[in-house]
Amino acid sequence: MKVIKIGIAPQERIRERMLAIARGELKPKASDPKVWFTSMRSLSQVLSDENRALLDVIRTSRPASISELSDLTGRKQGNLSRTLKTMSHYGLVRMEKSNRSVRPIAQAQGYQIMA
Question: pLDDT of 27-58, one tens digit each?
Fold first, then answer.
């Protein structure tokens, strides 16, 4: 089971960390978070109960398109597209393009939050 490690830190601390990595002063460990949020509030918006249920549907049903996912969940395509774009930005979902459709793929089965 793949688990995405999520870190929570102020924006300035995240920026300092990324710059230290870019300068070669810090080498990230394999156990370090790969996804960062600036607050629990922002994390809870992206991984709300509704969005975690959406990720579960993506994992179990493996929809071939956003349209199919819309049918499975009863959510409107526009709403789904915005939600999936946000999740994709954080690396929680990968959007795979094929011919005329875009297929959402969940990137993990679990999440570990690290402060």
Answer: 999 999 989 999 999 999 999 999 999 999 99
User: How many other C-beta atoms lie within 10 A of the C-beta of residue 1?
Assistant: 5
Task: Say what the pTM is.
Answer: 0.85
* Contact status, residue 14 vs residue 115, Cβ threshold 8 Å: no
Alpha-carbon torsion (74, 78, 83, 87), positive or negative = positive
- Which two three-digit tokens encode residue 56? 């579960």
Q: Checking phi first, is residue 74 left (phi over 0); if not, alpha (psi -120 to 50) or beta?
A: left
Q: Are 111 and 47 in contact (CB under 8 A)?
A: yes
User: How far is the C-alpha of 112 from the C-alpha of 92, rounded, in Å?
Assistant: 12
DSSP-assigned beta bridge partners for residue 8 = 37
| Domains along the chain with CATH numbers | 3-114 (1.10.10.10)
Q: What is the average pLDDT value for the chain, to the nearest integer?
A: 94
* Contacting residues for 107 by C-beta, under 8 A, at least 6 apart: 2, 4, 91, 92, 93, 94
